[in-house]
Amino acid sequence: MAGSTPATLIYVPTMTISLQQVLPAYFEETRKASSEIWGKDLRFHKGEYIKIVAPSGSGKTSLVHFLYGLRNEYNGQILYNDQPVRQLTIEDTARFRKDHISIVLQDLRLFPEQTVEQNLELKRQLNPFHPPEKIREMAERLGIGSKLRSLCRTCSYGEQQRVAIIRSLLQPFDFLLLDEPFSHLDNKNSEKAMELMLEEAQARGAAILFADLERIDYFPFTRLFHL
């Protein structure tokens, strides 16, 4: 529209993400009745630990993508600090992700022809929260220190998941979104990764939103929803 001004993201210390009657465009309205997320009005605050139990086919990955702004084929509204996500410019969305929201995607999206260390250092340099030596420290803690110089494509999927987890922790964030981050890890390695993520979230006063197929005993959620 002539004379219109692009939306400008307003950054405030107390970060919130809100959902207003959100429902994937490809879901029937009847889905609202059985879901504690779809079709509801919800607000998530910085510092909360939110667990979303989501069986296959319930739209778990769609929800995480919607919250991160990767996709927008939904009815209703998602808001960052009361700013509708759909009204943000591409530049504002990129800036928001860089400064305020991090993610572990189910499909990881690593660079397969780069080494583990290169994948991590590239992320760290975009908006440094940690010094370079923190990469090795985290990798050693999660049992992939010996893989730093290996190409990502040569690593097992479980090793790649740990790379993606570390990558998500190298930037500032107010919200950390997790989509089945431990699907290829055993309980011991999952607990180690969860411990690291909790430490990093606490250091930032950040929220974790953890979507998975089942309830995880070692995630100390403050709010629980069934999708």
UniProtKB/TrEMBL annotation:
ABC transporter domain residues: 17-224
Gene Ontology CC annotations of this record: plasma membrane
GO terms assigned for molecular function: ATP binding; ATP hydrolysis activity; transmembrane transporter activity
Keyword Nucleotide-binding: yes
InterPro entries to which the protein is assigned, alphabetical: ABC_transporter-like_ATP-bd, ABC_transporter-like_CS, ABC_transpr_LolD-like, P-loop_NTPase
Organism superkingdom: Bacteria
Keyword flag ATP-binding: yes
Protein family: Belongs to the ABC transporter superfamily.
SUPFAM superfamilies (alphabetical): P-loop containing nucleoside triphosphate hydrolases
Record protein name field: ATP-binding cassette domain-containing protein
